[in-house]
Amino acid sequence: MSIQKILTEPNKILRQKSIEVENVDKDIQKLMDDMLETVYAAPGIGLAAIQIGVPKRVIVMDISRDRDKEPKNPMYFINPKIVWKSENLNIYEEGCLSVPNQFAEINRPKECHFKYLDYNGEPQEKKADGLLATCIQHEMDHLEGILFIDYLSKLKKTMIIKKLSKQKKEAVDRIVV
Ligand code: ZN
């Protein structure tokens, strides 16, 4: 397993639509292992493959509170599809590993049911509520090239992107020794 570099906004790759996985083979499992290691190291609670530059519909997540303790509770979602969403909404302050150090309150359906393939390629269905529902919707947006800042006003979004571009430039300058 190896830790991968997480792409950050602004980056065109993050805006591309990911494609369905046809076969859950060893390569896809290796991808999921790398993604899990990357999300634990970040640290974050979820990651979509496109965030490490792989445009495949693959998500890994661990939302457990004691995630530093063993046994860990990783979840793997391949080709996820929402089959039902509640009308009730929930608000969480969201952040994203691809939008570093920026947070905003986002409204999303409080509950959702979704289908997916698991780590072994077996079809599964899950009923999600609260944090899991918000996380899976956030990650599934990544598969469509959508980031949480897209839900903000144009002004707020532009400000965040400007800030991130500046941070990136400064970071590049700092590497020069
Ligand atoms: Zn994200």
Explain the overall architecture.
With 177 residues, this protein is an alpha+beta fold. Helix content is 29%, strand content 29%. The strands form 2 sheets. A 5-stranded antiparallel sheet has the order 1-2-3-6-7. Strands 4-5 form a two-stranded antiparallel ribbon. Bound molecules: zinc ion (ZN).
**What's the average pLDDT?**
94
Please tell me what the overall shape is: globular
Tell me the series of helices and strands, N- to C-terminal.
HEEEEEEEHH
Report the span from N to C terminus.
30 Å
Radius of gyration, taken over Cα atoms and rounded to an integer in Å = 16 Å
Percent range for helical residues?
A: 25-40%
Biggest beta sheet summary:
5 strands, antiparallel
Query: Helix- and strand-based class?
Result: alpha+beta
The strand order across the widest sheet is 1-2-3-6-7
Small molecules held by this entry: zinc ion
Number of strands: 7
**Count of alpha/pi helices:** 3
Report the uncertain regions.
Answer: none
| Beta-strand percent range | 25-35%
Topology, please?
Blueprint: H1 26-41, E1 46-48, E2 58-61, E3 75-85, E4 89-96, E5 99-109, E6 111-117, E7 123-129, H2 130-143, H3 154-175
Antiparallel strand pairs: 1-2, 2-3, 3-6, 4-5, 6-7
The structure holds zinc ion (ZN).
Quick description:
This protein is an alpha+beta fold and 177 residues long. It has helices at residues 26-41, 130-143, 154-175, and strands at 46-48, 58-61, 75-85, 89-96, 99-109, 111-117, 123-129.
